Amino acid sequence: MSAVPTPDSLLERAPLLVRDWVSGLFPASWRWLTGSLLAIAAVILGFGLLFTLLTLIERKALGRMQNRPGPNRTGPGGLLQPIADGIKLLVKEDIVPVAADRPLHFLAPVVLVAFTLLSFAVIPYGRHLLPVDLASGVLFFFAAGAATELAVFMAGWSSHNKYSLLAAMRALAQLISYELPLLLAVVPVVMLAGTLSTAAIVAGQGRWTLGFIPHWWVGTPCGAAGFLIFMTAALAESNRSPFDLPEAESELIAGHLTEYSGFKYALFFLAEYLGMTALCAMAVTLFLGGWQAPCVWLQSIPSYGWFFLKLGALLALLMWIRGTLPRLRLDQLMRLCWKFLVPLALINLGTAAFWHLSAGWEPLPARLARWALALLLVLGPFAAIGRRLGAGVERRRYRYAPS
Amino acid sequence: MLGTGIIQGLAATAKNFVGSFHDPERFVTVQYPEEKAPVTENYRNFPFLVYDDGQDPMGTLRCVACRICEKECPPQCIYIVPAVDERGKPRKHPRVFDLDISVCMSCQICVEVCPFDAIKMDQTFEIAAADRFRGLLLDKHQLARPNDYYRQIHPAEAAEVDARLAGEKRQAEEKARLAAAKAASPGPARPPASA
């Protein structure tokens, strides 16, 4: 294991220098405020831009996965498509149903975006880039994330529309159910890292074996299992395919978004992508080493570069999954959560405890035994529960009309 | 094992994603205004009027203004006024032949009932107009197309029509020749009808 060198290049410190220069323009008594406001502006602007870019990249990538070129008319190669979409959504008429609960109907998208943005506050984007360093940052993140579920039900209830309400109830059932594996999957990392602070969790992953095997939590058996469970639950939490039942267009009109149009709809859309990005950023922080470089000699690349590289990779993975898997039925969704993910996540707690207690097994045979036991603890239940769930379910056979 | 199907699916989409960059054959979409998918021979949408001589389209329209199509047309989108000479006698030619393609339902009944093969189905589909009343009401000048065009869009059908028309023409000529021959040398075996 090599020690942690702390290279602090100019590029690494560039965001700090910009912040100090801008807040230097203000009187000293205002600087605490300008610093915070700058961080807020950077998060909103940065992730707002990322959102517009993501919508375009997603449409292009989905098109390629289905052998289509994707949007390619607006601007060079379709590059201006997000702007066209934005203008369209902004100038659309904003319709509020007569029977709707007007304040709630207005508040729902605002609350959703606000809570989603809150969760960005505790994510360390780089070595020096952490908007708020909370001692219980992980807890804050999931608390803010859970509050968005309220907004979904607000939207469904205030629309005074039976489709909206039914869809919001379905959405709420899904979101609350998947909150459980999402949180349980995080617990092993918190157990192993021994802290709830996001900065400390990332710092704890900044070690390398032989200089190129990073000590990220995804590299441990319980961490890998936790990562997979976390990503599955994150897909469901952010209403992404294959768990996009809350707004299943072909089944529910548009779910809780049925009565929303124009800018409010755009806000829901924004919140969905921001939520997805936030969960991916949390996955990077908890499991993929945050802003840490994958090997020692790649540390010359600024830490925020690594963070956004990993974030981009995870977002691409989500797009890939969206392009591949069809939507689940509600009962399948619930079965996957309560009969598969939750038991596995609970067993994973035991695996994490074992991994934590066996940390002192130093000699090579003991270390191999540790790995074998932990892998068995992860893969055994996965195979067993998977087989039990699959029992009695035959592979679907398709019959076509005789030609 | 559980999850293998997901990995297979991911592999399939990854193959599509990578393949779409280096293999244009994979694309199923046609970039419409620049390129067009070929229409099949049996494709039809709206009727047009056939004429024979490119030098004189209105003079050689096959339509004789018999108004059968006008009467048969289910949505009644055809409007015909026969041309008349100065004595009020029909000239076997349409003075007005209007067809409202915003009403037409492309049923082809006008084509089926036309005894003169004068009206056929077209294949042009770029007929959008800014004015839905005037822009979609076509007169006989807009409807007229040469027979060559008909041969081009419906080759098999046009060949059959051409053969039939040629046969009818030959029969008519034969008949006329016989009649002429008969008139030239009245045989003694058969007394004239007027007698």
Summarize the structure.
The complex is a heterodimer of chains A (403) and B (195). By secondary structure, chain A is an all-alpha fold. Chain A has helices at residues 10-24, 31-65, 81-91, 102-118, 137-158, 162-193, 198-204, 221-237, 249-252, 262-287, 303-324, 330-357, 364-390, and strands at 208-209, 213-214.
Named at the architecture level, the CATH assignment of the domain at 47-175 in chain B is 2-Layer Sandwich
CATH fold name of the domain at 47-175 in chain B, please?
A: Alpha-Beta Plaits
The number of domains of chain A = 2
Report how far apart the termini of chain B are: 104 Å
Q: What pattern of helices and strands is seen along the backbone of chain A? A: HHHHHHHEEHHHHHH
Low-confidence stretches of chain A: 1-5
Secondary-structure-based class of chain B equals: alpha+beta
What would you call the shape of chain B? Answer: elongated
Biggest sheet layout of chain B: 3 strands, mixed
Instruction: Provide the helix percentage of chain B.
Output: 25-40%
